[in-house]
Amino acid sequence: MKTVTSINPALINFDQYPNYAYVRLSVVMALYGISPATVWRNVKNGNIPKPHKLTARTTVWNVGELRTALNVKGANND
To answer: For residue 27, which of 14, 43, 57, 78 sits 20 to 30 Å off, Cα-Cα?
Structure first.
């Protein structure tokens, strides 16, 4: 029996986004493989970059900042 996993389309194209692009919480969750609560906990601890507020109800993360944080995390795991 095959298991079908859906991948967020924004995550599939993450490598093609310019550093000045923004992504939403679902992409950050997928990048780190964590829940929304853990994303916010890691933001508070400084492990994930702070998000930007576009509007009162729209929170986004900068792709360039996420790439830098992921590269640092990857370098620390080596």
So the answer is: 78
